[in-house]
Each structure stands twice: as structure tokens, then as C-alpha cells.
Amino acid sequence: MVQKTNTPTSADVARLAGVSRATVSYVLNNTHAVRISEPTRRRVHEAARELGYVPHAAARSLRAGHSRTVLMPAPAIPAGPLHSAFLSEVQGALGRLDYTVVQYGSVGLEGDEAARAWAELRPVAVLVPGAGCGPRGVAILKRSGARAVVTLGPERVEGAHALLMDHDAVGRCAATHLYERGRRRIGVVVPAEGALDTCSRPRLAGARQALHGTGATVSEVPLAYTERSAVRLAARWPGLDAVFAYNDEYAMLLMRALQDEGLRIPEDVAVIGADDLMLGRLLRPRLSTVRIELPSGRYLAALVDRLVRETGGEPEVHRVLGVSVVHRDST
Amino acid sequence: MVQKTNTPTSADVARLAGVSRATVSYVLNNTHAVRISEPTRRRVHEAARELGYVPHAAARSLRAGHSRTVLMPAPAIPAGPLHSAFLSEVQGALGRLDYTVVQYGSVGLEGDEAARAWAELRPVAVLVPGAGCGPRGVAILKRSGARAVVTLGPERVEGAHALLMDHDAVGRCAATHLYERGRRRIGVVVPAEGALDTCSRPRLAGARQALHGTGATVSEVPLAYTERSAVRLAARWPGLDAVFAYNDEYAMLLMRALQDEGLRIPEDVAVIGADDLMLGRLLRPRLSTVRIELPSGRYLAALVDRLVRETGGEPEVHRVLGVSVVHRDST
After folding, report:
1. Which of A80, A110, A119, B6 sees the fewest Cβ atoms within 10 Å?
2. Which positions fall inside the HTH lacI-type domain (chains A, B) (predicted)?
């Protein structure tokens, strides 16, 4: 069934360049263990270019026993601009360390099924966002040759390294700010969109924790990302004098509904979001927000590279979320 | 250097299930050409599960001469929510047709370099967004075994099938609406962010085309996605009585700056965006917008599947963008 009659092979490249197939392989796979002169390298590259030959990643990874592939399962929920920019940065930085970054969709796959599908690609490292992988999934990936499995999310997973995105800190930061602004009946929006639970639950817990024992109350405020849900919430506003609205987009939605209901921001209700999006600066009153800083792509790429090379160590935990309040006019 | 001592192999599975390695391969690769009884299939699956064996995608694709991998190079610019949802849908639909969808970052790669990197993964089909690939890139991909190269964007690329995202139609739609609302001095925002040129240039051209010969003027309005740029533009507003602001986010930015400058929307300047984001309904006045509809993931997946199977035909062109005006209060 192999029918790639037009496809140039490494044998064709070797013939044109006047070298052995092994030499072609060393040059095109960037193997520096073998000394090959610059002119020979150049000849091989020129022949490959002329023929339009590209090495076969699959064959290469079979030969090597492992790949240079780093797998980043694509998030199932549409990622925000912050997260997208972070992922691009990580990809670029891993690319510069000579890894191939492949994003893999997990749509329609659940639990261990996803890990098994990822394992089929025999990645040398896997970055798993959110709650994408349990302890059994981690074990499957390691058994199939992954040298480093790194989770990025609010919780640790047994057997994996963790970049802990400590969303508690976001909630603590927002609640403390509202308390310092004199507010005592504080709501925390928990989106009805369940996919956000892994972030929103720890944010609520962090707010509760920050104000524990102060006499201020912290209430859970359910809100779906629809105008209808916001209008209904505003119409029966439970007398809270401040709200941490999960993020800037939910804050915009809620602030509009509260204003339409005749409530004054911040006099009647102080509102704070998170993410520091441009839209927050365009709202009136200008939206206060929690700025969230992710680690640099370079930092994460260097960490992954080290974990791949130092395989066998204990799982490491790194806390990576920086938070700070940007105080504007809505609080 | 192969050192995966713990990794279970298909031979281990065969031993535990009491069948040949060929049978294991047929069952786990879903080959239906060979008749294998249900109990045997079940035994193989159970043995594989017990041992934690996962087939090796690379080995499988080498055996088959091609893979079931569809490559979707991840967009270099952060994708909007509309685009993200579309990509997820396509992934899901291709997965249900038994393809493996892999997103590949093109960060730091340019022109043919990107195509060469993609070709290394020996995809059976490649979906290329935007201007990610030229005619030479298409040829490289086809030579390395891709049976279908499909571009998604505003322009055709020689040798590739095209899902034409006809952004002219977005501009035509917006300009016609503004004209029908009685406006005659119409601006079209062209974002200073160059990555958006492939969409914004055709939108401007479409607006010009729609109003050609009507006596209305269409002017290019450069705007960067920063408050500073918007404030500066509004301060020296060139007397236009309407503006198509590229999309809803630029529209929000510009509308805020015009309002702060004392211009009334829509009395002095009518503003229309595009994308029909929720935020447009939250603005005051409520933002008019061009709703853009992408094809369903199922449609695109079925098309890719057909192109893979009917290899050898002429490049096909499908126009896939649906547009309609959502008229609210800003125009």
C-alpha cells in the first residue's frame, strides 16, 4: 500500500550529494555526536532542498527511541487572549530549544482516553492544562516514554510535575482589596459555565480564606455569561456592597445589568474583575481588576528541557501565578 | 539508545491475549479488512488495557505509508472566541471520522520553513489558516504524502483546495448598511496590527466596491488597538459621518474615544463592528454589527475526508463565509 512514488527519500539525497545515507541522516537530524565537515553539511542541505526532501519525524523518533516532540493538549474551552499569548510564547521558546511543539485536541476524549491518544504520539514531554489528566493518565504517558509530564493548573496530579496556577491567590487579592475599600458584604461570581470551575472554585475559596474572622461575609453569586442571567441577578440583587466578578468579561456583563437596574458603581456596589483586559479601561466607571501574570515562555521551556534531561527525579512543584490589584474607579 | 524497559510492547499484548502479533495489530488499528471474531477482539483490548499498552502512531503511519493525522497549524496570532470555537468543532468532527487532529505551532517559522516542519509529521491532510503557506509550501506538503492541502483564508493558494473566507463580503455588508442609513462619508478602520491585514484589506476593498459610483466616499482609517491611538484619532476626527470599525473590539475602543470627545453616536457618527460579540449588546448605544458565520465543523470534516479519499482531482474552491447585519442603536 506504500504508494508515494514521487516522494524523494534520503537515498535520493545521498546520491545527489555524493555521501552515504548515514551522513544524510546525521546532517538532517542535527546529530552533533558525529564530526562532519561544513562543506559536506552544506552539500547535504542543498541536495535536500533541491529535491524537496523532508525527514520523516515518525521514522526519526522510532530510530531514536523517543522523539523531540512536546505535546500541549489544546484547551477544550476557547482560551482567552492572555492564555493564547502564553501558549504561543511557550511554543516559540521550546522551538528555539529544538523541540517540536504539537497541540493536540482533546475534544470528545475523556479521562484516560485522552492520555492514551496523546501517548500514541510518543512525546518526550507533555504539558497538560487544567484538569486534563488524572494519575492513571500520567502513568500511561510515562510508560509510553514521556520523560516529563507537567500539569498547568490549580491542582497537583500524582506522579506529574506541577506548575501550580494558584487561583486562590486571585480570590484573596480581590477580596482583600474590597475589604480595604470598606466593603463588608462581598459577593464572588461563580460562572454557571462548568468548564471554568477549576478556576472559579479556588477563587471563591481564596476570597473566603482572606476574609475569615474579619466579620465580613463572602457569598457565592452564580452567573451565566448571558444578558438574561445578568438582568435576573441584578433585578433581585441580594444587597451585597461589593462583588468580585470572576473576570473582566463577567464584570462588564454584571456592571451593565446593575447600572441598568439603577445601582451606582461603586457607591452602591463596588465591582472588580480579573485579567486586566483593555475593555476594563474603556468602561465607565473604569473597571478595577486583578492583573494575573503567567511565567515567561522562556522560563517554562527551560524547565521542561531540564525535566526531560534529569528524568527520574521526584515530581517538582512550582507556583507560577503572580497577582496584583489594578485600582481604578469601580471599587 | 532504546531504553524503554518498562514500556509494554505489542508482543506482550499478544502473549497475554494468546494471539499473534499480527492479530494485535489488526485489532488495535481497527483494520476491518481482516475478519476477527468479537471475543478475540475483546481479549486483545482487555490485554492491552491491563498492560497499559498504547500503539505507536509513528510506527503505524510508517507501516501504512501514510497517517490518519490531520494537521491544523495553530494560528500565530491569538485566535478570537469565534475562531477558537470553530477549530474545536472541526477537531471534534474529524475525530469522529477517526482522524487524529494535531495543531502545530508555526511561531518563529517563516514561509517554506513552516511547510517543511509540518511535512515532517507526514500528515494525510493539512488545513492551513490565513496566509500560512505559499505554492511552494503546498508542493512540499504534497510531495511528502499529504493527500489534501486545504487553505482557510481570504485568498487562494496555487495547488491547494480553498475554503475561501471572503472578507470582501463583510466590508460590502457593513458599507451597504451604512449607506442605507443615509451616510455618505464612510470610514473603514484598518488595524495597525499588521497580522490582521489579510482580513482588513479585503474588508476595505469590499466596502469600496459596494459604494462605487454611489457618490459616497470610503476612507481608510488607521487605528492601533490602544487607547492612545483611539484618543488621537477621535481628537482629529476627519469629519466622517459613519465608520465600519473592523470588528466589535475596535468598535468599542473607537466608540469610547468618540464619545469622550463629545461626538454623539449615531447622530454625529454611526459605528458598526463585526463578529456579534456579547460586548456589543452591553455597550450604550448598543452596537450594530456584521454577524459572520463560519461553516459547521461537520461540513468541513466531511469535505476533508472526501478530498483525502478522492486524491488527484483539481483544486476545489468553496466560499464559506455567511454575513448578515445585526442592526442595533449605533447606526
Report:
1. A110
2. 8-64
Contact B107/A116, CB-based, under 8 Å? no
AA identity, residue A254: L
Using one digit for the tens of pLDDT, what is the confidence trace for A100-124? 777 765 555 566 777 887 787 788 9
Q: Which CATH number fits domain A69-165+295-321: 3.30.1120.10, 3.40.50.2300, 3.20.20.70, 3.40.190.150?
A: 3.40.50.2300
A135 in contact with chain B, both atoms CB, cutoff 8 A: no
Residues A88, B103: C-beta atoms closer than 8 Å: no
B102 with A121: Cβ contact below 8 A: yes
Q: Which residues of chain A form CATH 3.40.50.2300?
A: 69-165+295-321, 167-293
Give the total residue count for chain B: 331
CB contact (8 A) between residue A1 and residue B64: yes
Name residues 63-122 of chain B within 8 A of A (Cβ): 64-67, 74, 76, 78-79, 81, 84-85, 88, 91-92, 95-96, 100-105, 107-109, 116-117, 119-122
Global ipTM:
0.72
Label residue B293 left, alpha or beta by phi (over 0 means left) and psi (-120 to 50 means alpha): beta
CATH number for B167-293: choose from 3.40.190.10, 3.90.1070.10, 3.40.50.150, 3.40.50.2300: 3.40.50.2300
Q: How many CB atoms lie within 10 A of CB A312?
A: 5
What cell was used for A218? 463572602
Which residue of A56, A143, A252 is in closest CB contact with B279?
Answer: A252
